[in-house]
Design goal:
alpha/beta; about 325 residues; OB fold (Dihydrolipoamide Acetyltransferase, E2P); Aminopeptidase; 2 domains; 4-stranded antiparallel beta sheet; binds zinc ion; 13-stranded mixed beta sheet
Length: about 325
């Protein structure tokens, strides 16, 4: 797929279609070709199938924006993992694949690996800047935030105008993410998280919509200068949900902290209870920091991410 092959000053509903190990996959693609030349912003959502804020932000923004006012392109995939999306699940029911761990993918691999390859080759390859809209999914709670890799000044500047109440600078980035693939291509990137829990909070939708609009201004694709925003929290540290505190048991979780609470090392975060109320396990903070994820669905299975504690950026 080559956006430059499409006539300027128009909106296009496109699709990336392919077959992976016998499964027919079709990714929805929306292209807004600006009237004038300029940069290309790539926006994706639905990398995890149970995260909806970014999907709606893309559907609404692309319907409202006028290509005649744009200098450059907006290239979007509102749902990157349709099998997971239609299954209301983080991972794909076809191969149990987590699309955020298999980039840059493999065209001959599993359906999830093939999706990653097609997104990397056909969509990310055209980006001057990339943003991947995630959220906490149906079972977890995360702050409404924009994240970037510490040390990338282009991404840090963009995070500063996005307008999320929380900015999270990461010192390490997990392999296989969409943003790892962008990084390998030298493309500056951001990603977002929000409250999730299977709904779309109107405040989160507004942050995502306004944030992408501001990013288009920041990249001079839309006219006007976005305002600098001052976050309520500036976090620093690893953000890999796979490294969250977890358990090998199943049970009922009773948290004793709230999202964004400041905690000290050894402080109790919550307890896992059996169905007579007995304490099966007590979870404590592994470090001084801030609570950045809570498993808000009380039903816990072995391996679920329960809590994530990260640091605060030194000002
Ligand atoms: Zn996600």
């Amino acid at each position: 797929m080559n956006p430059s092959a499409y006539t300027r000053n128009a909106r296009y509903n496109l699709a990336l279609s392919f077959t992976a190990q016998g499964h027919d996959i079709e990714l929805p693609v929306i292209l807004l070709r600006g009237a004038n030349p300029g940069r290309t912003l790539v926006v994706t959502a639905g990398v995890h199938g149970d995260e909806y804020e970014g999907v709606r932000a893309i559907l609404e923004l692309t319907a409202e924006l006028d290509p005649a006012a744009m200098s450059g392109d907006l290239l979007c995939i509102p749902v990157c993992n349709p099998p997971a999306f239609w299954n209301v699940s983080r991972s794909s029911p076809l191969d149990d694949g987590n699309l955020a761990r298999v980039f840059p993918g493999n065209p001959e691999g599993s359906p999830t690996e093939a999706i990653a390859w097609h997104i990397d080759q056909h969509i990310l390859a055209h980006a001057d800047f990339y943003i991947d809209l995630h959220s906490a999914g149906v079972r977890c709670l995360m702050p409404t935030m924009v994240g970037y890799e510490s040390g990338d000044a282009r991404a840090e500047a963009a995070a500063g105008i996005f307008g999320a109440p929380v900015i999270w600078a990461h010192d390490t980035i997990a392999r296989g993410r969409t943003v790892s693939a962008a990084r390998a291509r030298g493309i500056p990137w951001l990603y977002t998280e929000a409250r999730g829990a299977g709904r779309i909070h109107p405040d989160d939708l507004a942050v995502y919509r306004n944030g992408v609009h501001r990013l288009l201004q920041h990249l001079s694709i839309l006219p006007g200068a976005p305002p600098q925003s001052i976050p309520e929290h500036y976090l620093y540290g690893d953000g890999n949900i796979d490294d969250s505190i977890t358990t090998s048991r199943k049970g009922f979780l009773i948290p004793e902290v709230d999202l964004l609470d400041t905690v000290t090392k050894g402080q109790t975060l919550g307890t896992l209870r059996g169905l007579h109320g007995e304490i099966l396990e007590t979870f404590t903070a592994p470090r001084n920091g801030v609570v950045a994820l809570i498993h808000i669905c009380p039903l816990i299975n072995s391996g679920d991410p329960l809590f994530l504690v990260t640091g605060i950026r030194e000002q």
